[in-house]
Design brief:
By secondary structure, this protein is mostly beta strands. The protein contains one helix and eight strands. The model has no long low-confidence stretch (mean pLDDT about 90).
Length: about 130
């Protein structure tokens, strides 16, 4: 028998993005909510400007859940609203910027650093929700 309060014995369940987003407040700190093969599905809350960086070995998918996100690229910006996504190509320098609090879903290989080629004080390993 399954016990829904015990993750070890509960059956399959949908991931409620709104509930997961409501469970944390920290900005620019990714939270892993699911795994797809060797990829992690992550949520993050963003506000302000991040750091210019690139991911040399992987593309990075951003899907805006709420708010607006500008992906600054060296050759122009991509502005995303709710329900819109953009894939930053492998090796492309980019700098996410959110002028208002914005919630995003990210898809990238497990273990990908949030700051890619620019490790520093904003580098954080994703926590699992």
């Amino acid at each position: 028998m399954t016990d829904p309060t015990n993750p070890a014995t509960s059956g399959p369940a949908a991931v409620n993005l709104a509930a997961k987003l409501a469970s944390f407040d920290e900005l620019w700190a990714q939270r892993t909510v699911a795994d797809v093969n060797d990829y992690e599905v992550k949520l993050a809350k963003l506000h302000g400007e991040f750091v210019w960086h690139r991911h040399d070995d992987t593309d990075e998918l951003f899907l805006v859940v709420s708010g607006r996100l500008t992906i600054q690229l060296r050759d122009g910006d991509v502005v995303l609203g709710p329900g819109e996504l953009f894939v930053v190509p492998k090796g492309a320098e980019h700098c996410p910027r959110a002028d208002e609090e914005t919630a995003v879903l990210l898809l990238e290989p497990a273990g990908t650093s949030n700051t890619g080629s620019a490790p520093g004080p904003r580098t954080k390993l994703p926590l699992r929700l």
